[in-house]
Amino acid sequence: MTMRDDLKAFIDNELTDAERIEMLHAIENDPELQAEAIELRQISRMIRDDIWQPEPTGLADTLEALRKNAPKKPWWSATGLQLAVGAACTVILGMILFPVFAQSKQSAKQTSAATEDKMKAYSDNQRQTGFSEFEGRQRAGGGGSVNGALSMQTPASPPPASAKSQIYAQPRFQIKTANLSVEVEDVPKAQQEAESIAKAVGGRVESSSKNNDEGSLATAELTFRVPVGSFETAVNRIRKLGRVTNDQLTGEDVTAQVYDAEARLKVMRAEEDQYVELLKATKKIGEVLSVKERLSQVRQEIESLDAQRKSLREQAAESTINLSLAERPKPDRPRENTNWLEDAWSNAVSGLSAAGRTLGSVGVFLFVFSPIWLPIVLLIWWFSRRSRG
Amino acid sequence: MQVVTNMGTSRELKDIAAIARDHYDTVFRFCARRVGMDAAADTAQETFLTAQRVIANFKGASSISTWLLGIAHNECRRMARKRRCEPPVIQLVDTGSSERNEDTLINRHALQDALSKLSPEHREVVLLHEAEGLTYEEAAIVLGIPVGTVKSRLHHAFAHLRKSLSETVEGAR
């Protein structure tokens, strides 16, 4: 399998990232391959542009045929019956599960505290593991900065001679994002501190919002953009603002997309040059117009590719930190029992409502099961009347 | 493997009339390019009737349109056998954007000739990928062949097209 065999798949964006990068380098170094790529693109584009598009007819007939051919519903799928069976099942399940549910509420409260502790331990562990892996990778890359929206990582070992290895020796582009949630004592103060951290490392606050309504806990949402080299420092300092409840670091490798866009740009520019030369040599008005039209299409594609490439590079040049600050809930003070009459009243009302609910449930249960017990009761009543008579 | 992302609820999925409304045009064009306009409506209708019978078997491993085109492919073959149709021809029409310089750029008539010289297998993959806009994987699902085979057939089909076109240019000179 030669590079040429993959050229069509490359044009159709059907190669893997590694294969695509390899192909891009081959195209850059081989003008013949480049010319072939342009030709294949032109053929493909012409087929797509000029393919016959038949006007569809017969949708109404097809819908009618589908309606006639629709399978008949079985008797048990009647809506009323389904609803009745569903209601009966719900009532029975409710009656069975009601006592279990009341107990499970109590146990859920107990387990939630234990789960929270486990989550914290897991989160701390994740943070440490993530960072050591991160640091390890960065050391291997030989770079000084650990985190960054775009970290330019270069392998420490000398690049091998093969083409594939040369590709991986190229700088790699990664868009990195940190999502942090921190619980703090004082949200406005922590927000100020976070903003000053971002400014101190050379970053900027992209957006911020806060909620300080009375009766609810104060919260703030901030988004920072910080330079690649200061990402880790900023994240570490923000973590120290309070108790970290959520800590996620994500990285998207866009190396292949960047190289892909760059190489496609080269191919498109070569195609543009070809059209410009052609335009100079063309004399007939019809031909001039069609070449100009194609040239304008190519230029539009070039602009779009260039914008895509620039956007990726810009995204990768800075890291993003999304920070959620929340006020730490204060422990509730035990309530003094000052109004015993009110308590007694509310207890009595809730007891009455519980009794009403139970009676209602029994009523519904009896109604649903009436096809079973009602004939038996009627039979007993009839026999008893007959024996008396 | 492409996974269906906008399948909707299972109730919507089972509503074959809604599926027909959404995908009829695609299926009709697919059929028209293979069996011609006269038989296209009948073949498209057969496709949806078959889909209605076997919709319970659809597991969402591919998109619904790919699944429908797979059925349409079989229906077209059945219809072509029944009516003894010629193999599909990739028909290009003048859309106003196809006038090219005879020396360097591609001439639509030359490309039409080159397309008609392709083998039926090559023509089929070119139609699926270039006309219907399917990915290699979707084309492989429709034809029931490996993705590698689609890739190789497309490569060879385009190699033949290039060769035929360059021969035409040489001949014109």
DSSP summary, beta strand count of chain A: 5
Secondary-structure-based class of chain A equals: alpha+beta
- Proportion of beta-strand residues of chain A: 5-15%
Shape of chain B: globular
Number of strands of chain B: 0
Strand order of the largest sheet of chain A: 2-3-5-1-4
**Sequence stretches where pLDDT stays below 50 over 5 or more residues of chain B:** 1-12, 100-104
Main beta sheet strand tally, sense and closure of chain A: 5 strands, mixed
β-strand amount of chain B: under 5%
Give the ordered list of helices and strands of chain A: HHHHHHEHEEHEHHEHH
How would you sum up the global shape of chain A?
A: flat
Number of helices of chain B: 8
Descriptive account of the structure:
The complex is a heterodimer of chains A (389) and B (173). Chain A is α+β, with helices and mostly antiparallel strands and 389 residues long. Chain A contains twelve helices and five strands. A five-stranded mixed beta sheet of chain A has the order 2-3-5-1-4. In chain A, a hairpin with a 7-residue loop joins strand 2 and strand 3. Chain B is built from eight helices and no strands. The radius of gyration of chain B is 18 Å and the shape is globular. The N terminus of chain B is likely disordered.
Which short descriptors sum up this protein?
heterodimer, A: 389 residues, 5-stranded mixed sheet, B: 173 residues, mainly alpha, disordered N terminus
Short description:
With 389 residues, chain A is α+β, with helices and mostly antiparallel strands. Chain A is built from twelve helices and five strands.
